[in-house]
Amino acid sequence: MKTKLSLLALCIAGFSCTSAFAATDPVLLEQAIAKQEAELNKLKKDLAALAAQQKEQKETQDKQAEIVATTKQQNLESMFSKFSFKSYGSMNFTSDEYFENVQDTNPERRNRFDLERIVTEFGYQFTDEWDMEIEIEYEHGGTGASLEYDGFDEFGEFESEIEAGGEVIVEKAQLRYRPSDAIGVKFGSIHLPVGLSSMLHKPNQYLTVQRHRSEAAMVPAVWNEMGVGVFGELANFHYQAQVISGLNSEYFRTYDWVASGHQTRFEHVNADDLAYALRLDYGSFKQGTAVGVSYYYGNTTGNRNKSNKVEGDGTVSIATVAAAFVEGPWILRGQYMYGTLSDADAITQANKTTPGLKPGNFAQLGSKSEAFFVEAGVDLGQFTPVPITIFANIDYSNPLAEVETGTATKRYENTWTSVGVNYFPIPEIVIKAEVGLHQVAVSSIPDTNFFALGVGYQFSL
Amino acid sequence: MNNFKYSAVAFALIATLAACGSSGDDSSTPDPEPETGFEFAATEMITNLTDDVIVSGYAALATKGEEMLLAAQTLVNDPTQANLLAAQVAWKAARLPWEQGESHIFGPVDSLGIDPHLDSWPLNTTDLTTVLASGSGFDADTIKGWNDDVQGFHTMEYLLFGDGVADNEKAIADLTSAEADYLMGLAEVFRDYTKTLDDAWQISHDGQTGSNAYGEFVKNPGTEWNTIYASQVGVIEELINGMIAIVDEVGNGKIADPFGTSIDTADTSKVESQYSWNSLTDFSDNIVGVRNVYQGEFTGAADKQGLVDFVNAADSVLASRIGSEIDDAIIKIQAISGSNDMPFRQAILDADARVRVQTAIDALSKLQASLETDILPLLNEWKV
């Protein structure tokens, strides 16, 4: 009923409207049309203005976006310019003759592969004066434990296994403040400037396949300790002076003197005895020609975990003299290292009788120790199109040069003499081959031959 | 109404399932006792093995160490063939308790690193020759600072018996004064270490005043101050593992290493006690040491409790089988010398004797397997 009523009302309303238009005369109609046209034109103008405005806005926005993108890119670039990444590494094949035990005089040959080391170095330049460097080394393929499912073990078991025998080490973690070339300060875990291996440890910085064995038989190769050091250069002199954590004599052993006293096996480094290192070079070993001396001095008894087993300080002092001549095709480098250890007999005796240390046949310690190497090479790439360097090397070490009492055995007096080549297919990669003779200064132990192949790389971003 | 019914049923089901699930975690239900479990009161056995076998053995070693030093001193003061022979006898006499004691090489002999000081092998004859050539400074303190491979049993053996290649006899004329002096220094060092070892078991395990003797730790497991043994199970496990270790070493190391896979790969330089030709005695004494621990007394002594009593409580057949396997291994080792008393360093180069060597290795392997698979698991069945 209501619907019907509504329809009727609508019809009446429609009629009344129609009759209103019909009643208007032509003049009025024209006026109305003109008015509408004027309004339309105005609208068109407004539209055009709006379009122009929008276009302008878009252009501005585009410009802004471009600026933002450029700024972002610039930021990104400046971030990378502050960040540095370097890496080097080496893989070797060695073939040595070895003796099964102290009675054995018939050597057997043993061939081995070794993913010797992969080192990654991250750096960040906070400001012009402040920077940091962290070096992580993976030795012998790193190490790790993994969980394995063994379906054949009873009803199936998960087993945790040690996968590899290598090491992952933070070799360097230092902060540096360097306001000028003349002086800088570094602290954290820093490299000691004792021994050339700490400075020249990238594969293209030494000629032999493995690093110099002479140095490794006396001091930690690429030696890092916690501490603080000042360094700098004046004229062509480079100097370093450091106060660092000392060694622990509990792990001194016959075959490598104080090298294994490097406190890497514990979570914390005992620092009751500190050590001091100095170095002065004229020229730069890293860049080429140089001569230099270094000195290390530190006590070791205080750093023993059982410090009451030794009376006396167990003072280690090491002096080195080194020289390098790198000019044109010629490369000549050498180093002599001499060390003394006080209270060597007391340390030997303490190590023999400290529960758990078990040095066995490697307890006796040299009160004096010495080592040297000389390597000489010619870069044939300067004469021919082939980028090859040929070299000759001699390494000598005697960690048991003298003992406090009695006679020192010559079993640990070793000489390695070798010749070889370094081939650089591109400057960042070196392929090495070396063949040599290993002599022990005991007449009943025959000389043995070794050869080695190696490939190394290094680059920096 | 229907919906409500379904919900109620579902709820009841869930509740029931949840209840069942939780009853599975009920920890108040006792674990069932293993049916094969056995009972054994171990205190007497542990006390006896510690005092009468281990400590008594090290005490004997310390005494023989004293006697060895005296014999060496006598030899230096009066270098006669008779005194050289007497020193050889003293060496073999000291060798016996040491080799028998290798069946329980745990505790101070390991932790104080005494084993390599006394029994380092092989001997470094090259360095020894150099040391002897220097001809002076052979006092005990100096020798102690030198490496283990030029001191201990085998260095004394080399000086007393000669190189052992053709025979094990040495004429007094061949003993140089440097050798005699060095021997005397060595004997003193040796005496000191055997005393340290004996003291560690009887007086103080780490040589510090006020700390307990190692024997007390073994005899009193689980007591408040005992930081080494938490229970009798741990002590018995240590004893069984000690037996296994020496059976393994004799069979797979001392005998099998020089034996090689054939006459061609046999290597006399790896034979222990090759200078005195005492090798077979060493090896059989090692297994006699296993028998001492197993039986609870030295051969021929009155019966006391040993591991055999522990095994017997679980399985009497097994207990006597192990006893026979130990005896058999000793007999097979001794039989290597054959009818003409062949020393071990000759036996590994002799086709007939090699068959006997293999028989001994087999007997030792069998014993080792029994100790590992039959004896060690008894610890799980023991109702402590």
Automatic annotation (TrEMBL), chain A:
This protein's record includes keyword Coiled coil: yes
Signal peptide range in chain numbering: 1-22
Coiled coil stretches, renumbered: 33-60
Assigned keywords, A-Z: Coiled coil, Signal
InterPro entries documented for this protein: Porin_dom_sf
PROSITE patterns: PROKAR_LIPOPROTEIN
Classification via Gene3D superfamilies: Porin
Keyword Coiled coil included in the entry's annotation: yes
Name the record gives this protein: Phosphate-selective porin O and P
From TrEMBL, chain B:
Keyword field: Signal
Range of residues in the leader sequence: 1-21
InterPro entries named in the record: Imelysin-like (IPR018976), Imelysin-like_IrpA (IPR034982), Imelysin_sf (IPR038352)
Localization per Swiss-Prot or TrEMBL: Cell envelope
Statement: the UniProt record of this protein carries the keyword Signal: yes
Domain of life the protein comes from: Bacteria
CDD domains assigned to the protein according to its UniProt record, in alphabetical order: Imelysin-like_IrpA
Residue span(s) of domain Imelysin-like: 54-371
Annotated protein name in UniProt: Iron-regulated protein A
